[in-house]
Design a protein that fits this description.
Layout: E1 2-8, E2 15-19, E3 28-33, E4 36-45, E5 59-60, H1 69-81, H2 86-93, H3 112-117, H4 121-132, E6 152-157, H5 168-179, E7 183-185, H6 186-193, H7 198-205, E8 209-214, H8 217-224, H9 234-241, E9 249-255, H10 261-274, E10 278-282, H11 290-299, E11 304-307, H12 313-324, E12 330-333, E13 345-351, H13 368-379, E14 382-387, H14 392-399, E15 404-408, E16 419-424, H15 425-432, H16 440-452, E17 455-459, E18 466-471, E19 488-490, E20 495-497, E21 504-505, E22 519-524, H17 526-536, E23 542-545, H18 555-564, E24 570-573, E25 586-591, H19 605-617, E26 628-633, H20 639-645, H21 649-663, E27 670-678, H22 681-695, E28 701-714, E29 717-726, H23 729-738, E30 747-751
Parallel strand pairs: 9-14, 9-15, 10-12, 10-13, 11-12, 13-14, 16-26, 17-24, 17-25, 23-24, 25-26
Antiparallel strand pairs: 1-2, 1-4, 3-4, 3-5, 6-7, 6-8, 18-22, 19-20, 20-21, 27-29, 27-30, 28-29
Helix pairs in contact: 1-2, 1-13, 5-6, 8-11, 9-10, 19-20, 20-21
The structure holds adenosine-5'-diphosphate (ADP) and zinc ion (ZN).
């Protein structure tokens, strides 16, 4: 046994254990850390081990690295770029629960376990390389029965508290469910827990578990899909020909909403599959893409696999096994899919590339779009970033010639862009003498739509009933006791809620500060929109889609399917509505307050507002029926609003980019945001001051701060920020190496940050 560096997925530096010599980097091992057991990732031999008694590892989990070499390379790159451990990235690519079979036989009759007993790690590594290269078949190596599809029974934990006493078999069931994150398929559960089915009945009677017939949304969609082969128009054909398969290149497919980008992707996929390569297709959110999945399934039957957050542990393992067995040719997934263990990737698509959900707002804070480009480079294949409202980062890269720009300027066939009517809310106020949610113009349009039996979508990008409560007597807003943030009123639940930490309170009668009974709500949210609409249009069928109504698994998909099949007249919601969904009967889009997002103190406020307005407006009239948008605003002259009204991205980019350049913001500089979270504001400031000192003098690096974070206290921790700017990304990388952060300390960092809260 030799000293070996092993990294855990914990805020700890790599540790040194004794492990067999020759154990390759990238295999998982079981180790003891303090009192507990943990999974670790082998980094390599430790040339300079600490002079203490080293513990041996408990066991080797993988015979060789299970991730394909290119994915391992990508993880190594990402770990360096985002300054996080490889072990923190590993779970994004490989589910913890995945185990390979050591008993799997080789052609000569030996098993992998035999090689382990002989300590032949080099031979095992070579076998792994051959397996990844497709030169070695190990048919029983990753063997898991396929358990997906309609008609399966799922067992879930309820939130009923456990009784004081349960039997041993009952405990096994409850523990197995807890380990699996609360839900498992019945068959799988009985397997894992090793008990008979009778135990389930008892637990169900006591209300501790519930059984649900699992509806596989994908299989539903499969039935819905009909493949409509369209003839690509000239622009689409041009875009298709502009993408060279078989070698690396970054392409920006900029096409107005409904211009047929998806058809271009589909044609491209066909070409890539014909070359025997696979496709990684990334989307911002799976729940919003039932149509895409049915189109894909119809065009490429049996070749599509989908990875998403709604899968339970068992299903996730089954998916990765399928990928490693090279079964699907097209893998559709969200952010983490960029690390999916798919081999022979010949094309990467990043649809709606401007979407913020590609960036993780938790450690490790990766940006999947950026990593997709890196992956395409490693795989030597094209990557296509598509959007009707490209991020200014991608647009600028295309302008500078680093990405190849492909444009679709028109909707195909007879579908036309929607007409946009602007309602100046200042005029409405003058006329009505009060603040209204719905202008007379919008009410009229809604009534018309309802009469014609068509659908309308109403956007207000704020959930809850009222944004916050304040006291008229003393002027104080009601704040979360743990965060420097006001509480949002949710009428349906009769609660004031903190949207940051989840704190909840029953709304008080009187102001907690001065005791006056003059509390009032300020700022409407979607819940209030729904209430007012119900009162105004009692016969309308209204569906609200926001984070509050879609938190249950499958509820978003169910809502969208209902809306699509015409069971909904008015869809009310937040930005969730903007994300690439097509409703055939949707002809009216109402935007209640277009300038809501402009007041945010963030240099991307205008860009986000433009994107949201343009994307929502683009939902109108996507099929045979012409669409109309009524946009209410207090600032009709703001460029973001004006360009959205004209649906003119290029004009927006042309006005916004010079601002960014003169103020020194991305895409003209790169950023790293260093954050401190401490028990006191002084400690937070000190930590950043010390960091600043270490960074000062780095050529090309500008440091701004430390300053208080926009939300100065969250979950009882005080927050400060230090912003590092540089014209070259490399300078920021240098800074990371010059002043590495202690893992598990008060400081963290965010490269290419999108959120500054
Ligand atoms: P995008 O991805 O740009 O939003 P889609 O690819 O979903 O747009 O296309 C919008 C609609 O137009 C779809 O219903 C699609 O089938 C249709 N469509 C796309 N290209 C063509 C074409 N060349 N001829 C006819 N219909 C088309
Ligand atoms: Zn809070």
């Amino acid at each position: 046994m030799i000293p070996t560096r092993i990294e855990l997925n914990r805020p700890l530096p790599p540790l040194t254990y004794l492990a067999p010599p020759g154990l390759p980097a990238g295999v998982r091992v079981q180790v003891k850390v303090r009192a507990g057991a943990a999974m670790g990732l082998v980094l390599g031999p430790d040339p300079d081990p600490p002079k203490v008694k080293l513990r041996p590892i408990e066991g080797v989990v993988d015979p060789f690295p299970l991730l394909p070499p290119k994915v391992r390379e990508l993880i190594a790159f990402a770990a360096g770029y985002y300054a996080c451990g490889e072990a923190a990235l590993l779970p994004l690519a490989l589910p913890q629960g995945l185990r390979a079979r050591w008993e799997s036989p080789l052609a000569d009759g030996r098993t992998l376990a035999h090689l382990r007993e002989a300590g032949a790690w080099e031979e095992l590594s070579a076998l792994g390389e051959a397996w990844h290269a497709g030169a070695l078949k190990l048919p029983t190596f990753l063997h898991r029965p396929e358990r997906r599809g309609a008609g399966l029974m799922e067992v879930r934990l309820t939130d009923r508290p456990h009784p004081p006493k349960v039997t041993a078999s009952q405990a096994k069931i409850l523990l197995a469910l807890e380990d699996a994150g609360g839900a498992l398929l019945e068959e799988e559960l009985l397997d894992v827990a090793g008990v008979g089915i009778g135990v389930l009945a008892t637990l169900e009677k006591h209300g501790l578990i519930e059984k649900l017939k699992r509806v596989d949304l994908l299989s539903q969609r499969r039935e819905a899909g009909v493949d409509r082969i369209v003839q690509l128009n000239e622009e689409q054909q041009g875009a298709l020909e502009g993408i060279e398969v078989g070698r690396f290149g970054t392409h920006l497919l900029y096409g107005v909403t409904g211009s047929g980008k998806t058809e271009v992707y589909l044609a491209l996929v066909e070409r890539v599959l014909a070359q025997g390569k696979r496709v990684l297709w990334m989307v911002p959110e799976i729940g919003l893409t039932p149509r895409l999945l049915s189109r894909l399934e119809a065009r490429f039957p049996g070749l599509v696999a989908v990875g998403h957050a709604g899968l339970n542990t068992g299903e996730r393992v089954a998916d990765v096994v399928r990928l490693l067995n090279d079964e699907p040719s097209i893998f559709v997934g969200v952010r983490n899919a960029v690390l999916a263990p798919l081999r022979d990737v010949g094309l990467i698509i990043v649809d709606e590339e401007h979407e913020g959900s590609y960036k993780s707002e938790e450690h490790p804070r990766i940006h999947a779009r950026d990593l997709a480009i890196k992956r395409a480079q490693l795989e030597d294949c094209p990557v296509v970033l598509g959007s009707a409202t490209p991020s200014l980062e991608s647009w600028q890269a295309a302008q500078a010639g680093r990405y190849k720009l492909l444009k679709l300027t028109q909707r195909p066939g007879t579908t036309v862009m929607p007409t946009v009517e602007v309602v100046d809310l200042r005029e409405v106020y003058k006329a009505t003498r009060r603040k209204v949610l719905f202008s007379p113009r919008l009410l009229e349009a809604l009534a018309d739509t309802l009469k014609r039996g068509e659908q309308a979508m109403i956007l207000l990008n704020r959930r809850g009933f009222e944004n916050f409560w304040m006291c008229r007597a003393c002027g104080k807003p009601l704040e979360c006791p743990h965060c420097a943030l006001s509480l949002t009123y949710h009428k349906g639940h009769w609660r004031l809620r903190c949207h940051l930490c989840g704190f909840e309170a029953v709304p008080p009668e009187a102001c907690p500060a001065c005791g006056a009974e003059h509390l009032r709500g300020v700022g409407e949210g979607t819940e209030q929109v729904e209430e007012q609409l119900t009162a105004l249009f009692p016969t309308a069928r209204i569906l609200r889609l926001d984070r509050d109504t879609t938190s249950r698994r499958g509820s978003l998909e169910a809502g969208l399917l209902a809306a699509e099949s015409g069971e909904v007249d008015f869809l009310v919601g937040t930005q969730m509505l903007a994300k690439g969904h097509t409703f055939p009967r949707l002809t009216l889009v109402g935007i209640l307050n277009a300038d809501q997002g402009l007041k945010v103190a963030d240099f991307r406020a205008a860009e986000r507002t433009f994107q949201l307005l343009t994307q929502v407006a683009g939902r109108a009239g996507r099929a045979e029926l012409p669409g109309k948008v009524v946009l209410q605003t207090y600032s009709p002259d703001h460029p973001a609003v004006q360009c959205a009204v004209a649906q003119d991205f290029e004009a927006f980019a042309a006005t916004e980019l010079p601002f960014r350049q003169s103020l020194g913001y991305p895409p003209f500089v790169s950023l790293t945001l260093y954050r401190a979270e401490s028990d006191t504001p002084e400690a937070a400031k000190q930590a950043l001051d010390a960091l600043k000192q270490r960074l000062e003098g780095t050529p090309g690096l500008r440091l701004l701060g430390p300053i208080e974070a926009p939300v100065a206290r969250a979950k009882d921790r005080w927050r400060m920020q230090l912003l590092a700017k540089a014209a070259e990304r490399g300078t920021l990388g240098l800074a990371l190496r010059k002043a590495p952060l202690k893992r598990g300390g008060d400081l963290s960092l965010d490269r290419d940050p999108l959120q500054f809260g």
